[in-house]
Amino acid sequence: MNFNSGRQGLRIRTSIPNRESKMAAEPRRCRYCAENFVPSIFHHAQNVCSSPECQKRRKRDDHRARYCSDSEYRLICRESDRKWRDCHSNYQRNYRQQHPAYVEQNRRAQHRRDRKRKVKDLVKNNLAFDVKSASADVWLVGPQLGDLVKNNLAISEIMIFQTVAAPEVRSG
User: Fold this and answer.
1) Residue 29 β-bridge partners
2) I want to staple 46 with a disulfide (CB 3.0 to 4.6 A). Which of 39, 60, 79, 138 is the partner?
3) Helix, coil or strand: residue 11
4) 8: left (phi over 0), alpha (psi -120 to 50) or beta
5) DSSP string covering 92-118, please?
């Protein structure tokens, strides 16, 4: 810049710097959608494009990271949630009344979680009687039986099939 000083110490600018060259930023790739974008001149560290979907993901990820790392922020969020629940105390009851399919789906999922928890509690359970001493073969059948390691007792529906011996043929 060239400045000329006039009378009484007044400076006059004789040339204007090219602001466009300083403000132009290199295009970057969005970390969510992988599209190229030009970052804002006001946010030089911008690494997410301005699409609403990507901004929503960025805010959600930032919230989760801050919630995990900042105990004061976590307390503020919990207090905010508590205030909302106090103001909307009938929300869950109303939602369940208006969405019976959700209620049924949740009931089935809870039943599956309860059964899975019972099976996990049976792992390495060596209580009760010795199954090997029974004269019949015992077959435990079910999808969660892979989790039963070294287990001699399982609470389940058991079907016992007794082998029928072929009649002996007497020669005589």
Assistant:
1) 36
2) 39
3) strand
4) left
5) HHHHHHH-HHHHHHHHHHHHHHHHHHH
**The one-letter amino acid at 82:** R
pLDDT at 129: 47
> Which amino acid appears at position 64 of this protein?
R
Task: Report how far residue 102's alpha carbon sits from residue 48's, in angstroms, rounded to the nearest whole number.
Answer: 35
Helix residue spans in the chain (DSSP H): 19-23, 52-69, 71-87, 91-98, 100-122
Read off the pLDDT of residues 116-143 as tens digits, 9 standing for 90 and up: 887 776 665 555 444 455 555 556 566 6
pLDDT value of position 88: 96
Element (H, E) at 36: strand 36-37
Nearest to 139 by CA among 121, 123, 159, 124: 159
Integer Cα distance of 56 and 74 in angstroms: 20
For the chain, the distance separating the N- and C-terminal CA atoms, rounded to the nearest angstrom, is 128
Q: Which tokens sit at 164? A: 């029928």
Low-confidence residues in the chain, pLDDT < 70: 1-24, 121-172
3-state secondary structure of 22: helix
